[in-house]
Specification:
4 copies of one chain form a homotetramer. Chain A has 143 residues and is α+β, with helices and mostly antiparallel strands. Chain A contains 5 helices and 5 strands, in the order αββαααββαβ. At the A-B interface, helix 1 and strand 2 of A face helix 1 and strand 2 of B.
């Protein structure tokens, strides 16, 4: 069962796209996953390439699978690539270990989902993800 | 590149959910794929189980991969199960060969994408998919 | 290394398309594989759905992998589905066990490759494959 | 549905082979993919090794999946190998992240497909791909 409400997921995507428009980012794919790593909502802007669904979900999945934001996930991938390779295998090849995957926390600090964005630079993807989460009144943890 | 506009995809999902509400269907997952079988938009209603993303996409992917609506896809699966099993293998296990995957055609009859819905009975899933496509002013081909 | 000449492969595809045009078949995908099961040439006609590359190759691969034309391959799939399922697994999911995969034999009767066609009915796919092989002056073995 | 015309795909292959002959390149495999990453046409020259179908398609698929020419794809693979490894996993192992995959753009700059070539050095593969695309009156984007 989903543990993340669809209306919040849609708010996140709307907020992320608004930030992307303000910053004139490239076309994005935005995935919102629940705490179990399952997709709640996804949108791909016109012109975004076709692997953006998997890439955006993969960033969010990576963050959720180890309970860390994508920035820390990517730092680990640089420092201990064998660890990240193992995690990827164990996940069934579902993770993209780079910035742009951001944990969503509630007011108590509990992880209730994650956002992954892919399309512009990883730094800009992350900025849009944080903006989306804050639009929905939730707390972003980019790592 | 996406070849199906995101605003049309969102209209389809909104239209499908409206039909589902009118018919009091169970919580749904709705996937809209472009002509190449790549996800453009997805939404999962509160209470829908976690495999609905893959199940809804799998119905749409099955229809697109052979150029037939899901109703015909399912009929073939009954008549020639070895054929459908082979297609599933060749697709990398991406297809769900049942009703509820509906091709989207433009005014010229060209396939421009597909909708897949999963959550209620296959018949009801299909009804919601057709309603969504028609909401967006496009032509549904359920097979 | 390829053991089937590209000029013969192209003649086969041209011949198959000519037969398809004469019979007004639906848009086809045509694969020509060498005796080792590796692709030599492929063409997909405008309007053919996107899994036709895998489906046409899968028919030819199935025929080559057991040294029988696709018609016999499909008969076995109906009679002993567990056998076909096992072969599919062993092949890494590369086979489509239906008619439309046709072995290519030289004048001595040796199998030197196979043609697979997908797009119309399996019977019509097979007719086009046989026509293509004969256009190239080779012998077709449909099983 | 294919979104790239077969006659243009064949012109590209003919043009690439003509360039290869002029430069005395080694035997090549040439894949032309539509915008959704699906094969439209492939030819493997006599003497080209048997994995050239996958290698040439993998270059084109890599370029399309992230919307960048193969030269940039390869640069990213050197700088952020964990990113490329993740993309490879997410694609189901379908990408070859090296030069020789070239995006095809129409006059408006829209990506409408990609060419991948494998058989000689990556630089020479790329030269032949660009020549093929220009033969068909289209614009090459090697990254």
């Amino acid at each position: 069962m989903t543990t993340f409400p669809i209306n919040k997921a849609n708010q996140i995507i709307t907020g992320a796209f608004a930030k992307a428009a303000a910053l004139k980012l490239k076309p994005l794919g935005v995935s919102v996953l629940d705490a179990g790593g399952h997709l709640v909502a996804f949108q791909r802007q016109d012109g975004a390439s076709f692997l953006r669904p998997q890439m955006s979900s993969g960033k969010a999945y990576a963050a959720l699978s180890v309970g860390m934001g994508g920035r820390r996930v990517e730092a680990i991938a640089r420092e201990r690539p064998h660890l990240t390779a193992g995690v990827s295998d164990l996940s069934g090849g579902k993770i993209l270990p780079v910035a742009g995957g951001v944990l969503i926390r509630d007011n108590a600090g509990t992880v209730i989902g994650a956002v992954g964005i892919s399309g512009d630079t990883s730094d800009n993807d992350e900025i849009a993800a944080i903006a989306g989460i804050e639009t929905a009144g939730l707390t972003a943890d980019a790592g």
